[in-house]
Amino acid sequence: MTQTPAPWGTRRMGSYAATTTVPQYRPVIDPDTQIALIEDEHGRTVELGSHGTSTSGLTPTSTTPGDGSGPGGATDADSTESYDQDRSSG
């Protein structure tokens, strides 16, 4: 009976790096303000840092038929999306 060799990838594996315990957080909704909060495993509110604001808009563009000297030609329409993010200081 022949023995099947181990796949080549398993011969290249090494030990996992040391790990650390990550605290448990959970999202909750404040019943008074209806704002999402993050709580740690002890029920304390956790601050995740400052968050900026952003805006997004869709600008339609189109072309009309013809070159102005007469009727005809194809029409075309598309849109361009713009995105602007306010970078708040951390």
At a glance:
The chain has one helix and four strands, in the order αββββ. It has 90 residues and is mainly beta.
Q: Would you write up a description of this structure?
A:
There is one protein chain. The protein has one helix at 8-12; strands at 26-29, 36-39, 54-63, 76-85. The chain is mostly beta strands and 90 residues long. It has a domain at 23-48. It has a two-stranded antiparallel sheet. Strands 3-4 form a two-stranded antiparallel sheet. β1 (26-29) and β2 (36-39) form a beta hairpin. The longest helix is centred in the first third of the chain and has 5 residues, at 8-12. The radius of gyration is 29 Å and the shape is flat. The mean pLDDT is 75.
Cα-to-Cα separation, first versus last residue: 66 Å
> Mean pLDDT, nearest integer?
75
The radius of gyration over CA amounts to: 29 Å
Count of individual beta strands:
4
> β content, as a range?
25-35%
Major β-sheet profile? 2 strands, antiparallel
- Sheet with the most strands: spatial strand order: 1-2
Helix coverage percent of residues?
Answer: under 10%
Written as H for each helix and E for each strand, in order along the chain, the element string is HEEEE
In the predicted model, the low-confidence regions spanning at least 5 consecutive residues are: none
The rough form would be described as: flat
Number of helices, counting only DSSP H or I runs of 4 residues or more: 1
Structural class: mainly beta
Protein name: ATP-grasp-modified RiPP
Organism: Streptomyces niveus
